[in-house]
Design goal:
Elements lengths: L3 E2 L8 E8 L4 E4 L6 E6 L3 E5 L16 E3 L3 E6 L17 E6 L4 E8 L4
Parallel strand pairs: 1-3
Antiparallel strand pairs: 2-9, 3-8, 4-7, 4-9, 5-6, 5-8
């Protein structure tokens, strides 16, 4: 499985839909300007970001994750509108990792700028 690289996206907001996301993590690399990202899954899914037990593209779902119910979105604030970490000295996420809880699902990533 290869990471889906959205880092060169220039349209704001930016939407990307991936079909056939399986039960191992699919990595979505975020644009550097992203302030908030919303992850929506067509079936129940797991989502994780960099941090404790950092996930890997194609890796197994670990302990540090959040559940997304079917057809529901999870919103993550990545950085403030000035494209700085929310607090000085913190490093913000550059990727979001999503895996279906069973079989496969369709995942939509919505990247937004200038929101807090």
């Amino acid at each position: 499985m290869a990471a889906i690289d959205l880092s060169s996206a220039t349209n704001v907001p930016y939407m990307y839909t991936a079909t056939g996301v399986g039960t191992t993590y699919q990595e979505f690399k975020l644009p550097p300007w992203v302030c908030r990202v919303t992850v929506v899954a067509s079936k129940a899914a797991w989502v994780s970001v960099t941090g404790a037990g950092t996930p890997a593209d194609g890796g197994a779902v670990g302990t540090h994750k959040a559940a997304i119910p079917q057809d529901t979105g999870a919103v993550f604030v990545i950085q403030d509108p000035q494209q700085r970490p929310i607090r000085t000295g913190l490093t913000y996420a550059r990727s979001v990792f999503v895996a279906s809880q069973a079989s496969t699902c369709t995942v939509t990533i919505i990247a937004e700028a200038g929101v807090s």
